[in-house]
Amino acid sequence: MAAVFAVYLVGTASPGPSNLAIMGVAMEQGRSRALSLAAGVALWWRRAAR
Questions:
Q1: How far apart are alpha carbons 22 and 43 in whole angstroms?
Q2: What is the pTM of this model?
Q3: What digits encode the pLDDT tens for the residues 7-29?
């Protein structure tokens, strides 16, 4: 059971591809571009959830 919990913790704590993309844009192009990307990702997920 401890191994299953460890795998769950690692999977939950690791960022997904969209988070990594937002962090990369923030480091390379600045905060405003990263916020624009984050808004686009949020909009996409909002539409996908319908």
A1: 14
A2: 0.69
A3: 887 777 778 889 899 999 999 99
